[in-house]
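Input/output pair, single chain:
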Amino acid sequence: MTEDDLIKESGFTYLESKGGDNVLILLHGLFGALSNFRFIVEGFKSSYNVVIPMLPIMEMPMKQLGIKGLVSYVESFIDHKGYETVNVLGNSLGGHIGQLYALKRPEKINSLILTGSSGLFESAMGKTFPKRGDYDFIKKKSESTFFDPKTATKELVDEVYDIVNDRSKGIRIVITAKSAVRNNLADEIHQITAPTLLVWGNQDNVTPPFVAEKFHELLPDSQLEFIDKCGHAPMMERPQEFNEILTNFLERVSSSPRVY
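Output:
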């Protein structure tokens, strides 16, 4: 599944594998791209209906821009597709959106998977926004996301560089990031009763391991798995271990469907 497979309809842009009845929705982060989820798609496209809605951070009207606007977008997309229930997997900002959707529409959530998620704490922006025009700075910033700097491919660094050096896109990134920081969910996420899987890199510098432990403490039905030698995006950096953990979790929740 590549950008050539993107479907555009009714104001939504998305990928859909249609490989099974159970829906697995993947929500990308602030600088996210399809490549972030390549290994999940490869591993699950035949057994699940893997769906990736492209979050309109760069297209959404400025008045609606922010994490709540993105949650409304995901809600409208799921309603448009008519999915009865969904398994929602979110990385970084995508995990934050997943939590807010689960709070808003609990009847739609079969399970929630969070990896390197914001919602309680995040330092993705650091103290300053990445410097425009400084490719080396952005390369180092991208590499710091991972345990192994080589995971930050030239393609990935180029994508971030292009965003940062477009003034309009840069402003949108800042607005979205600040809205996420304002929407701390520490007092609310205990209301999420869906089975929740937390997959975290031991060397995550953006949302450190203590964040995962706090999620585990606050979420009433959560399972926490750490992956060693791994940073902020386990599904990219340690795909085999990630997919094994995800497979076992999804098999468990599918064998015990939720009752409302």
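The first helix runs from residue 38 to 44. The chain has one domain: 3-122+184-255.
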